[in-house]
Amino acid sequence: MYHEEKIKQHEELVGLVKEETPKIKRYVHKQDQRNAIKTITIEYQKTHMTPMYEIEIEGYINNDKKLGFEVDADTETEGVKLSLDGFGCSMKMQKLIGF
To answer: Which of 14, 27, 43, 86 has the most Cβ atoms closer than 10 angstroms to its Cβ?
Structure first.
């Protein structure tokens, strides 16, 4: 029963992230000071809720998993479905985008 509930919660979380994908991609593009991002891939199955109830969304750019990033988000903030409030990325990506 517990395992089934966890699967259902993850599916709902992934559904929300998929719905908000355009917003997430715009947010990632805003971090790019050198216009180096050509493509953005979000790894939906790696999306998870932290113990502090923050959503962590993982992905990578330009079809290179070594150019990985993580976006932090909160839900239901002042009527907004997904409020993006943090960004981190690999050292390789930092150098590429000038972050």
So the answer is: 27
